[in-house]
């Protein structure tokens, strides 16, 4: 699959505006939690570039491999705190909005886990990764190629 469009080159002002929001979120949301949010939304949106980037970044910052794999099935996983679960549930509902938006149950759990400011910053973080995902999926943005794997002798 070839990249359709390089948004950063074609619309640099718009790209920089999204990057400005990204920089705000990075400065105001716990990095460990931010990696989980970005990875979860990217899984839901099918953005291979973002899944690759955010899992790689999380590993570099010390996140455990098993937790990253478990983001895909976080509801059944024992690896997440109640605060992380509230953020992941909010990520699911905001990413999938649908007809019902964010459920009252998910919102109440998020309000219990976060201050109003933290909740506002989480909403911005979830919204920002959804913008990046939509750019990546729409333009067929691809992750860097993997190094060739050695084949086992038969």
From TrEMBL:
It holds the Pfam family CMD. Gene3D superfamilies: AhpD-like. Residues 12-92 form the Carboxymuconolactone decarboxylase-like domain. Transmembrane segments: none annotated. This is Carboxymuconolactone decarboxylase family protein. It comes from Yinghuangia aomiensis.
């Amino acid at each position: 699959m070839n990249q359709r469009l390089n948004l950063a080159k074609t619309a640099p002002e718009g790209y920089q505006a999204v990057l400005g929001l990204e920089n705000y979120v990075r400065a105001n949301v716990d990095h460990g939690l931010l990696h989980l949010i970005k990875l979860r939304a990217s899984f839901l949106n099918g953005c291979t570039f973002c899944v690759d980037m955010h899992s790689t970044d999380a590993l570099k910052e010390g996140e455990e491999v098993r937790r990253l794999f478990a983001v895909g099935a976080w509801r059944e996983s024992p690896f997440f705190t109640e605060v992380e679960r509230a953020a992941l549930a909010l990520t699911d509902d905001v990413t999938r909005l649908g007809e019902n938006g964010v459920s009252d149950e998910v919102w109440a759990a998020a309000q219990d886990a976060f201050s109003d400011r933290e909740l506002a910053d989480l909403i911005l973080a979830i919204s920002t990764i959804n913008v990046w995902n939509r750019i990546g999926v729409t333009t067929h943005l691809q992750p860097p190629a993997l190094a060739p794997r050695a084949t086992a002798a038969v």
